[in-house]
C-alpha cells in the first residue's frame, strides 16, 4: 500500500514538473514568499512599515533621485537584530530632502527640496549634532526606483512590505478553512442522516450570504485590524472545503477497504483520519490553492474599503485605495503597480491549482 502511494505521488510529481506554467507559477509564489518574509532586508526604507514620510517629494515618478540629509536624534533605540529583521527598525532620526548644502564655520547650511522649480527654505544646523562632526556620512543620494507615494514614502519599500499581508492571509485563511471544513465535512459525510441535514443547513445558510458582506460583518464584530481580517476571511471559506470533503467521504465510505476497517473493529475517528482523508487529499490541495487566490482578493477588497489592515501598515489593497484618483491625474502607476502585484500573485496560485488538478487526475 505504501509502495503504491509512493508511486502515485512520484507520478503526480513528474506530471507537475512537466507543466511549465505550474512550475513557473510555483517559482513566482516562492519568490514572493521569500520577499514577504525578509521584506525589511530588501526594502530601501527599512523603518517600521516603511513609513518615512517626506511630503516635499510626494508622488514622484519612478527613478526619482534626491539628496537626503539625516539629522541624528541622539536617541539610542534598544532593538534586537531579530526585531529589526522581521519588524523593521525604530528610526528616530529625521530625514530631510535637500537641494544643496554648504559648510559655514561650525554650521551646516542647507536648502530644503522644493518641486516645480521653486526654492526651498534655507536652514542651518550645528555640526556638533553629528557624531565627531562627520556630516558627510549623513548626506547621501537617495534613489526611488518606484517613485514615492502621496505622502513621500518610498513606494518600492511599501510594495515589498505590503506583500506580507497579501501572502500570509492566504496561509492563515486556508489553515482556518481546512480545520473547520474538514471537521464539518467529515462529520456530515460519514454519519449522514440528521447530522448531515443539520450541517448542510448551516453550509447553505453560510453559502447564501455574499462572501464580502459576511467578511465585513465578522470583521466589524471582531474589530478592525490585522489578525481580525485573517480570521474573518478564514471563517467564510470553510464551506467550499466542507462540501468537497462531504462529497468525497460519502463516496469513499462505501468502498471495500472501509468495510474491512469496520470489520476489524476500528473506531470512526481512525477510519476517517487514517483511511478516508489520506485518499481525498488531492481534491483538498486543489481547492486550497483556489482558496489562496480568493483570500488574497477578499483581503485586497477589504483594504480598499478601509476595513482591512489599518494605516500605517502597508497593504496592496490600501495602496490602490490611496492612489486610485491618480489614474486620471497622470500618475496611474501609483495604483497600477499594487494592482499588477495582486494580479500576478492570484494568477500564480490559480495556475498552480490547475497544474495540481491535472497532476492528481488519475484518469489522465
TrEMBL record:
It is a multi-pass membrane protein. It holds the Pfam family OppC_N. It comes from the Bacteria. Keywords: Cell membrane, Membrane, Transmembrane, Transmembrane helix, Transport. The chain crosses the membrane at residues 20-43, 167-192, 198-222, 276-298, 333-356. Residues 163-353 form the ABC transmembrane type-1 domain. It is found in: Cell membrane. The keyword Transport applies. Belongs to the binding-protein-dependent transport system permease family. This is ABC transporter permease. It comes from Winogradskyella bathintestinalis.
